[in-house]
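Help! Submission page says 'invalid entity' but I think these are all valid:
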Amino acid sequence: MTAWTAPYRARVAAWTAPLGSAGVAALAVVVWQVVSGMTFVVPAPAATVQALVRDLADTSFQHDLAVTCVAAFWAFVIGAMTGAVLGLALGSSRRARLVFEPLVVALNGVPKIVLYPLLLPLLHLGMGSKIALGVLFAMFPVLINVATGVRAIPSVYWSLAKSLNAGRAQTLLHVTLPAIRRPVLTGLRLAVSLALVGVVLAEFFATKRGLGRVVLQSYTAGDYPDMMATILLLVLVSFVLSLALWRLERSIR
Amino acid sequence: MTTNTGVATRRTGKAPKPTPGRWRRTGDGARSAVATAVLIVLCTAMLETGSRLELWTSATLPPPSEVLPAAGALLGTGQFWRDAARSGVEIGTSISFGLLAGLGLGVVFWKLPIAGRIFEPYLIAFYSVPLVLFYPMMIVLVGLNIWSVIILASIMAAIPMTLNTWVGLSGVPAVYMRLARSITCTRTQTLFCVALPAAAPFVFAGARLATAYALIGAIAMEFTTAQAGLGYRIRYLYESFDTVHMYAYVAIVLGVSILLTAVLEIVERVLFARRVR
């Protein structure tokens, strides 16, 4: 009896959680539908999806989408690389940690958006300033996770590397990186959505193109289905990317 | 430093290891403090020199010798305190809501693991800021007032608090729970006298993250659109080309948030150093 129940239960449990999560999403859509019937400012789910389909076919919107995607991509790449390099430096040197760690932790807790007026004149209104804000947003989780990860590596790993006469590059590639792959992935997962948010927030502020601009314009024009559709697109993209990276993170335990 | 952004996942939940050598750490702390002060002074000096040498115009980035006195003068104005009060109320309310909701949800998810697993993907995906993107929608829904900021900032604060409480409680050794049962603790006693104190390092780290997220979220939302608040004032001054006062506000916001982070960090170290001993 028990021999049969245990795997059966496990299989049921494995399905309950994803089904439940989907149920939560479905419930959210139902609530959204009900609320949209009560107030005219909230577009109905169907109207929002229609607006999204129409927008995605529109060349001007496609251009905005491309601009935001490219900016977010570079913000992520540059932010993650900078974060990784600084994190490695901070994690492997005791002195660097003593000197820089408090400031890094403090800067992480700062609302980086207030630095945007400083970035604008340096990099002008276009791509540069957007990417820079995205980099500021995306860099810190990678930096802190890499630094913490490197510090948590058991010292016997270093002894082993030394006893095998591994060079610096070899140690980095074959010891450090594999040992910190989990915290690195956590950092990258956070960095993806942060890069996107940073870029879109910069576009809320001042820019010529981009989805942030679209959201703000449709807000000003009172075109709520378009606004909702764009917000939803952005949130969905960051949602899917985060979840995919989270799954990956769990699978490589 | 608990991972400031990457909360431990449920599966890796272990209590932070006690670090030996309290004396050495105290010396290190002093050294760090001195180094940080030197770094801040150095940065200020660089900004001042760059401005004096006219590497950039004063309209772009005025020298600290103009900004800092302006920031000091701001502290005597009613306008500043009105904005600060608005932001303070928003942030304070969001932190309280976020902490309460996060603690409650964390406990529920610990007691009812299936509920936890159902909501886990949402907590993970909305962890760290994407919620800010809902702000325009929130303005449309509840109006351009204090509540649109508070609602979103509370959710942003509640997420790390929930995850950390949950991770912390799940990591409490089973023997603690058995002990509580053997001395016939009630459920409330078990929760408040055994489980939560055992999970305290995680819960506190969650509270620290919640504070940071409420602050970051509220200021960012004010910056986007609002009628008052420190974030709003920075944007307003930017748009009216009053750079000196804008940077004075930026300096104050940076100063306050750095101070807040530092205080929470120190409180955490003091609290849990005592526990370890």
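Support: the input was valid. A stray whitespace character was the problem, and the output above is from the cleaned input. The mean pLDDT of chain A is 87.
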